[in-house]
User: What shape does this take?
Amino acid sequence: MEYTFSKSVDALSSSAVREILKLTQGNQVLSLAGGLPAEDSFPIQEMREAFNRAFDLGAKSLQYGLTDGYIPLREWVASRMKQKHMNVGLDNMLLTTGSQQAVDLLCRVYLDEGDVVLVENPTYLAAVQLFQFRGIRAIPVEGDSEGMDLEDLAKKIAQYRPKMVYVIPTFANPTGKVWSLERRQGLLAQCKANNILILEDDPYGEIQFDGEASYRSIFSLDEHPTNSCVVYTSTFSKIVAPGLRTGWAIGDQRVISMMVKAKQAVDLQSSTIDQIALHELLSRFDLESHIEKIRASYKERMEWMNELLLAQSWDGVQWEKPRGGMFLWVNLPADVDAEKLLARSVQEGVAFVPGKPFYAAEPQHNTMRLNYTLLNREDTQLAIARLGKAFTEYSKSLVTQ
Amino acid sequence: MEYTFSKSVDALSSSAVREILKLTQGNQVLSLAGGLPAEDSFPIQEMREAFNRAFDLGAKSLQYGLTDGYIPLREWVASRMKQKHMNVGLDNMLLTTGSQQAVDLLCRVYLDEGDVVLVENPTYLAAVQLFQFRGIRAIPVEGDSEGMDLEDLAKKIAQYRPKMVYVIPTFANPTGKVWSLERRQGLLAQCKANNILILEDDPYGEIQFDGEASYRSIFSLDEHPTNSCVVYTSTFSKIVAPGLRTGWAIGDQRVISMMVKAKQAVDLQSSTIDQIALHELLSRFDLESHIEKIRASYKERMEWMNELLLAQSWDGVQWEKPRGGMFLWVNLPADVDAEKLLARSVQEGVAFVPGKPFYAAEPQHNTMRLNYTLLNREDTQLAIARLGKAFTEYSKSLVTQ
Assistant: This one.
């Protein structure tokens, strides 16, 4: 038998990074590579009780359910969204297998092969891969610490006639960046004027370190839900636990209902019991205090990593302290190739993700993403020490070349 | 904002049937329409305990897991497959969100727009819709009670040069049909000779009413796992519970690894906790006895429906008693349009699925699918009585036309 795959699998070919990171599985390599939440933040006991209550509800917890998701959980999400200035009804929402699936479903119902999506530069690598997998062209728009450059956005809109813009405006992956209100409004205005859909991906919005600041979602700034120019997606992965794989998308009912039909075709529905248990959890859980704890813990971890990095005193290495989220984005000296540094680092027992796969077009080779949420204090210290050793040795090898 | 959807959404447009069936939600309509397992077959107490044991394993039950699925559960499936003459390693398998997702993932990595898939006539409607959603042409092959007609298969292969054949050879949906060994071998031989992949969908294989007979999977008849011409998919939905949304696919490692990469792009992974709990259940559960109970219960329900239908003595109505599975496929008199009968039936308080959407090409309008697993004895009796009334009235209206 000779297998002939679809054209789209070309976009799925293994990356050098994935191969290196595979080497880290099951051994003593400390990982700053993933985007995993701290396991001590999971409400295990409360979740166990919530599953028990879900079973008390009887057989329906194990039966097929609605494609768009368990109604009481959708009601809970709607009420939460309302607190954040997003007023939506149940018909404006579907629950998904993580927010990753929301991105896939929207692509499938909204974009054809060859269509253009504008993205930040850099942006979430799995979104870029998903666009490529569907034959969609992802075109980067330049930006700074405030968000996308609105002039470059206008230029790219004129040049590429995109159907969609994909953004993570609050504590972006990988950069940790937060868009200013002005840039959010600017993006929205240009997209409305040009009939371009915005996919606002907000997995990290709740993980905010500076308590007072308020970052309005782009969705909330637009008329909504009807005629909204924005589809907004978020997830329980970072505020409860990722293993339940539950996210949601909200938008105009015409868009959402199409996504529901697509979901029916691709997997019928996500787990019934997980959705019911999540609702049981949330109906008795003090989520606000829980989020406060996560914020405090992640902020402490971020500050600790920042301190450890400063203590390394590497020449020409720069980063901005993130105001939220899970990642620290590092600019290395221009002559450093972060993929080569990774290979050396894995030998020393530490892994990270080089910046390259986060760029939709021309990559910057001298960037890397460090996760600070997974490892504890001691392991983070050890990881940065190992990274320091790898960096020093790698830098020496550059000089001798 | 004016929304412009992808071309593929045309395949997702609402069907008349779906609109009629929507009317049945939340009111007194008895449904023979779905494919829902009997809720009294769910091992609720055992499942509750399994989830508790999963929580005993600690935080990893709520953390991100592997895209291809929880290793101990894959090991369990591999050992189960071995009992059924299918010898596969972990690299030959991925766990999916129900077997529906396995069909989607294989389509995405193996088929391009315009490619042809041969299917039974009729076949599983959600597979047909999925093919159409991806722009794949589904071409029906004629068949009889033994399976596909091998001559028509040869003709269609020559004519359409298909890349894949999709079949449900054991207790098919919607017909309940079981393929003979000869037809299984014949399909395999032709596909091997022509380098055509077979997708063998086997959600119902365990739901067998005649205890002694042994139906070999097509996968088991082929060389495997390497160079297998078959990708086989099944699910826990019918032997444990559908609400956990856990299925699996097995095949050549090259095909499976591509499906894993596609899954990583579309939803990262299915629920961690559900997979761990399922493994906890299965490692202590007497699955064989449980399946025996389901078989006995569904056989009794099937016999009961068969008896009730016979008692109706409808003119020109025919069906074959299924040897397994969840459906009874009914041929109505030639002048009956099952969609019109459905509209009348819903008024009487009973719903079913007309045969039309199960046909990839020219539909037979005088067919319908009845599910016998969901309703209890009394409700089934009431449902068939209502169906009888609707049929009689509808038949009268035909005469007077």
Notes: The two ends of chain A are 48 Å apart (CA to CA). The domain at 44-282 of chain A is CATH 3.40.640.10 (Aspartate Aminotransferase; domain 2). The CA atoms of residues 133 and 258 of chain A lie 20 Å apart.
